[in-house]
Amino acid sequence: MKRAVAQAAVVAVALAGLSGCASGPVDRRALCTGFDELGRTLMTAVGGIFDNAVFSSADDLSDLAERYSGTDLSADAAALGKIADSDETSGTELQRATRQTATVCGHPLGLGTTSYADTGSGYGGSGSYGGGYSAPTTSVTPYTQPYTQSYTSAEPTTAADNAPSDEAAAQTTLQQQVATDRTSAEALADRWVPQLSSKNDGLVADGTTYDQRAIWADFTTTRQTYPSALLLWSGDYSSFTKGDFWITVVNTPFTTGAAANAWCAAENLDADHCFAKLVSHTHGPKGSTLPR
């Protein structure tokens, strides 16, 4: 009995020590631990982000961002604080609210985790508040280049900034983008993803008659909102009915079509502009699309 009381006293002292650090500056380890926790909480929220855990994690990260001793993260802190006080949010809103924090931690929210070379205990001691650890390395496979570009650019690139001059140039640009995204796309094989767009030359949709330049503009505009967007050529996969479409998907794989459709619903995207698609080299078109 005395031993149990003594152990409880030790725990109480440890917790008191942690709370004493709650108002002081935090370093990258503490910041990125909170960032990764918000990402994990976000990725487990299904069917709409109303979970108290998401808002609690956002509030915790807001506090850490406000107290971060490196780069000024006050904008992220304010945006996260606003979300924490709201009744509803989305993955896109949370990604936008953590742009600068993502740069510090080296990966987008919910995609990959930050790892460290040292074996510090996390909170408390030199491994948490000031010094004592090496710079983090980031594991984001298969989430690579598209995310890195999104979070290192000071100003977002618009479609007009790199619009091809003619149809031939646009087709070449589209082909180059497919090649750039191929490694990440291959990692999605036999997984369900949210499909955001399917366009080919001459298609009429949403009041637009699409040519190659319009298709490129559609992709780049989509990627401004969803930095994880990848461009696929339907002819490279067996799960698409037609082989001559440029396909835009989100680089967020799911094990079921229902989970991919839940992501679409959480983003408030309608059924015509977001639905579950199985990306596969072996599965046929039948059963590879799950409408909402």
Task: Write a concise synopsis of the structure shown.
This protein is α+β, with helices and mostly antiparallel strands and 292 residues long.
Polypeptide structure, described:
The protein is α+β, with helices and mostly antiparallel strands and 292 residues long. It has two domains: 2-140, no CATH class; 159-290, no CATH class. The chain is 44% helix and 12% strand. It has ten helices and nine strands. It has a five-stranded antiparallel β-sheet with strand order 6-7-3-8-9. Helix 3 (52-67) runs antiparallel to helix 4. It is elongated. The termini are far apart. Mean pLDDT is 76; it is low at 1-21 and 117-161.
Count structural domains.
2
Main sheet? 5 strands, antiparallel
Oligomer: single chain
**What share of the residues does DSSP label as strand, in percent?**
5-15%
Q: Whole-number average pLDDT?
A: 76
The helix tally amounts to: 10
Distance between the termini: 59 Å
The spatial strand order of the largest sheet comes to: 6-7-3-8-9
Categorize the overall geometry. elongated
Helix content: 40-55%
Q: Count the strands?
A: 9
Task: Summarize the topology.
Blueprint lengths: L1 H19 L7 H16 L8 H16 L6 H11 L6 H7 L1 H7 L7 E3 L21 E3 L5 H8 L14 H20 L4 E9 L4 E2 L2 E2 L2 H14 L3 E5 L12 E5 L6 H10 L8 E5 L9 E2 L2
Antiparallel strand pairs: 1-2, 3-7, 3-8, 4-5, 6-7, 8-9
